[in-house]
Amino acid sequence: MAQKRVGVIGFPVEHSLSPIMHNAAFVALGMNDWLYDAMSIPPDILRLGLREPRQHGYIGINVTVPHKEAIMNFVRPDDTAKAIGAVNTVDFRTGIGTNTDAAGLLNDLAANDVKIAAARVLVLGAGGAARAAVYGLARAGATVAIVNRTMKRARRLVEQLQATAGIGGVQVMTLDAAASWGMSVIVNCTSVGLHPQITQSPWLFGVPFPAGVTVYDMVYRPANTALMQQCVAHGGRAIGGLGMLARQGAIAFELWTGVEPPIEVMMAALHAALESKGEG
Ligand SMILES: NC(=O)c1ccc[n+]([C@@H]2O[C@H](COP(=O)([O-])OP(=O)(O)OC[C@H]3O[C@@H](n4cnc5c(N)ncnc54)[C@H](OP(=O)(O)O)[C@@H]3O)[C@@H](O)[C@H]2O)c1
């Protein structure tokens, strides 16, 4: 019987790949007294629902849609969570909530030798993932611009990051303007291209695609998105978002256990899970 429990809360949460990757890491490290499971908590009972894992001795939890913002009211968000406006990892021992998405992205870009400091980076999207990306990329020294279907939302994101983290100089532009902006990296933080809409791309097909850029696509179902294919067809390099998923999880794993997890094991478990669903 596992004595040390961690898990993920969401609604719905059954689709989450987090249990697969964390439990694979526990097995690989022989941490047989650890278990990671998924808990479905409806939004209207989030406060009450949080009592369950706390009372049952959970060490910490990951937090996914739709609880990432609301949970800020029930934990002590650290500076990163406050800047991003969302918590995805909680340590019940301290009551602190943090957000590992920005660090997960930056760690995976670094693992893939993508240079960010002093680079021009275009972020596609203005939702929660984009806010984490812009926060991380700007702090890592990139010059960042945002393109989003709803421009007003992108402008609000820029204002929020200025207010919460003092991040300035982030431009909002149209896709047409971005085509000639001269970025070396594009990070897709939209959900466009996600399974089953696999033929769609956030880079609209009439707009000239910049040659030789690196695309980092946070979408990882499918492994090779339409955007990634456009990029490679124009002489660029494309990286899917599975590594970010593993690395944001790895930061939580280390926070809870004090042990560095085997990233390759986590990645292999994720690949296998997606392959078995036909979404790899
Ligand atoms: N790899 C990872 O570890 C990782 C981590 C976090 C998130 N993600 C992925 O990142 C994606 C975004 O997540 P999120 O939490 O930021 O979601 P979100 O808050 O719902 O934001 C969705 C974004 O996608 C845009 N969008 C949606 N449908 C569109 C369409 N048909 N055409 C153009 N733009 C469209 C939205 O634009 P509007 O503002 O105009 O609606 C918005 O910018 C998801 O696919 C998620 O799975 C991956």
Can you give a write-up of this model?
With 280 residues, this protein is an alpha/beta fold. It folds into 2 domains: 4-99 and 245-277, Leucine Dehydrogenase, chain A, domain 1 (Rossmann fold, 3-Layer(aba) Sandwich), CATH 3.40.50; 103-240, Rossmann fold, CATH 3.40.50. The chain is 39% helix and 19% strand. It has 10 helices and 12 strands. It has helices at 18-28, 46-55, 79-84, 101-111, 128-139, 151-165, 175-179, 226-233, 242-257, 263-277, and strands at residues 4-10, 34-40, 58-63, 76-77, 89-91, 96-98, 120-124, 143-147, 171-172, 185-188, 214-217, 237-240. The strands form 2 sheets. The chain has a 6-stranded mixed beta sheet, sandwiched between helices. Strands 9-8-7-10-11-12 form a 6-stranded parallel beta sheet, with helices on both faces. Strand 11 (214-217), helix 8 and strand 12 (237-240) form a beta-alpha-beta unit. The two termini are 33 Å apart. The mean pLDDT is 97. The site of NADP nicotinamide-adenine-dinucleotide phosphate (NAP) has 25 residues, from helix 4, helix 5 and helix 9.
Features:
6-stranded mixed sheet, Rossmann fold, alpha/beta, binds NADP nicotinamide-adenine-dinucleotide phosphate, 280 residues
Question: Low-confidence segments, ≥5 residues, pLDDT <50?
Answer: none
Shape: globular
Provide the domain count.
2
Order of helices and strands: EHEHEEHEEHEHEHEHEEHEHH
Assigned CATH architecture of the largest domain: 3-Layer(aba) Sandwich
Largest sheet: 6 strands, mixed
**What is the CATH T-level topology of the largest domain?**
Rossmann fold
Write down the CATH class of the largest domain.
Answer: Alpha Beta
Helicity range of the residues? 25-40%
Biggest sheet strand line-up:
2-1-3-5-6-4
Overall pLDDT metric: 97
CATH homologous superfamily grouping of the largest domain: NAD(P)-binding Rossmann-like Domain
